[in-house]
Amino acid sequence: MEVILLMAATVDGKIGRHSNHAVDWTGKADKEHFVKVTKEAGVIIMGSKTYDTIGKPLPGRFNFVMTRDSSRKSDQDNLIFTGQSPAKVIETIESMGYTSAVLIDGPLTNKFFILDNLITQIQLVIVPRLFGSGLSFFPTPLELDMELSLASLELDMELSLYSVECLGEGHVLINYRVDR
């Protein structure tokens, strides 16, 4: 199963100003790449904060929303709210016949998928902006829930660069394979 972590970041490595920052800051080139990659995969995975920021399931893709709120239910045929672990979510997606999925979430969910060794590829779009402060790709100790063990969230991963591409408007796409 191909699991692509797709992120847009400023030149100073921020994926947003804060957790509720609207996703409209990245520009047209990033949006076009996002639509292309997510529609090719057919499945996107996100957390509930990301889903709430978007506000609706994205059309033409199956939307998995990871949440700890068991009261969240879907009345849409392309949307599932789930409390499953990342590994179980991937098993479910495979059982539906998909061969790839795109993770489009924030720091904590990204880290859980990486710690479970589920990410096979990272696509990073560098956007020509600077925020100075904001959200990073992965959570800092201050952003973690107190119930989580800091030791269990240590991260050290090697990547292999396989392509770099100019998307236009000053956007640069960097593609990495996760070394296993």
Question: Could you describe the 3D structure shown?
Answer:
By secondary structure, this protein is α/β, with parallel strands linked by helices. It has one domain (2-169): Dihydrofolate Reductase, subunit A. It is built from 4 helices and 8 strands. The protein has an 8-stranded mixed sheet, sandwiched between helices. The two termini are 14 Å apart.
CATH fold-type name = Dihydrofolate Reductase, subunit A
Oligomer: single chain
Q: Given this structure, which CATH class is correct?
A: Alpha Beta
End-to-end gap: 14 Å
Find the CATH superfamily: Dihydrofolate Reductase, subunit A
Low-confidence stretches: none
> Helical residue percent?
10-25%
Query: What's the rounded overall pLDDT mean?
Result: 88
Shape: globular
| SS-based class | alpha/beta
Sheet having the most strands? 8 strands, mixed
* Radius of gyration using CA atoms only: 16 Å
Strand content: 25-35%
List the strand order in the largest sheet: 4-3-2-5-1-6-8-7
Q: Which keywords apply here?
A:
single chain, 22% helix, 180 residues, Dihydrofolate Reductase, subunit A, alpha/beta, eight-stranded mixed β-sheet
Helices, strands, pairings?
Elements: E1 2-10, H1 28-41, E2 43-47, H2 48-54, E3 62-66, E4 79-82, H3 86-95, E5 100-103, H4 107-115, E6 121-127, E7 159-168, E8 171-178
Parallel strand pairs: 1-5, 1-6, 2-3, 2-5, 3-4
Antiparallel strand pairs: 6-8, 7-8
